């Protein structure tokens, strides 16, 4: 009996550490929120205007992107993050993906806290929009502006501006817009030669 050495086995790899760890933390935060009736989200995974003397205020500026309002919110965000994130992490590296997540979290939370005093913000939607705009810059060359970048910006950012004007839902369109702007600015700077 001969053994065929040409057949390769399939192995599971941890291909995108920043994106996978981010997703696992988001899942853990959601489960914790469900177990605590939302109290953990309020304490750790939502950003809102609070006293700057409270050390958790500074922590929440970054950790609000881990919290989600429920399974639908979580699945919607993770679908995009797990789809786009590995490609971005392969192109830019783990450290830069962590940086874009942190920049997006900080920018969305600071602007949100100053503009909306009575509304809590949680979720990775800003990160999703940062990834969407960032991925549109993957074929960017200095001195050129690809039509795909323009179309992505018009479609995704334009939709959020329109929804912010006409919609009264509980979705933070501002976080989406800020995330998209962060992704576009960072994408431009990381890709110009």
The CATH superfamily is known as Rhomboid-like
Would you report the number of β strands? 0
- Give me the secondary-structure category: mainly alpha
Main beta sheet: strand number and arrangement? none
Your description of this structure?
- With 193 residues, the protein is mainly alpha-helical.
- 67% of the residues lie in helices and 0% in strands.
- The chain has one domain: Rhomboid-like (Rhomboid-like fold, Up-down Bundle), CATH 1.20.1540.10.
- It is globular.
- The model has no long low-confidence stretch (mean pLDDT 85).
Task: Report a brief summary of the structure.
This protein is mostly helical and 193 residues long. The protein has helices at 17-35, 39-45, 55-63, 71-92, 94-115, 125-135, 147-166, 173-191. It has one domain (17-191): Rhomboid-like (Rhomboid-like fold), CATH 1.20.1540.
